[in-house]
Write a structure and sequence with these properties.
60s Ribosomal Protein L30, Chain: A; 130 residues; single chain
Length: 130
């Protein structure tokens, strides 16, 4: 009987590739979704608080850091809403974001925050990978 060698790897050792079409948020849910009062207030507050900056030319690499007071918060929950507000404020299309780095930190209640940075992606990393 042929022995099968099993390889145990971490994501830092090799990238894992799964041949499947990624599912979009729009494809995942049926029907229309409506903004809540909380979302409308969040959008209003963010548009006021975000600094006036000029973004570099696309494509973009983005860094997002969330300071959550609840350790059970999912790191990816605020991404879509925050990106939608960034697009509105800075008049860009997030289809040009080619790389994102997301960090979750735990902070004391009342010290929650969002930190972000948008950079141009380097020309050598713009090549498509197969």
């Amino acid at each position: 009987m042929k022995q099968i060698k099993t390889m145990v790897a971490t994501s830092s050792d090799i990238p894992f590739k799964i041949d499947i079409v990624p599912l979009s948020v729009n494809e995942a849910w049926k029907g229309r979704r409506f903004k809540t009062k909380a979302y409308n207030q969040y959008e209003h507050d963010l548009l006021f608080l975000l600094p006036r900056i000029k973004l570099p030319p696309p494509p973009y690499k983005i860094y997002l850091e969330w300071g959550f007071s609840n350790a059970a918060s999912d790191f990816d929950n605020p991404v879509k809403m925050f990106m939608d507000v960034l697009q509105k404020k800075y008049n860009f299309n997030d289809k040009h974001v080619m790389e994102a780095h997301i960090v979750k930190k735990i902070v004391l209640k009342g010290k929650e925050y969002i930190s972000f940075c948008v950079n141009s992606e380097s020309p050598q990393s713009q090549n498509a990978t197969s």
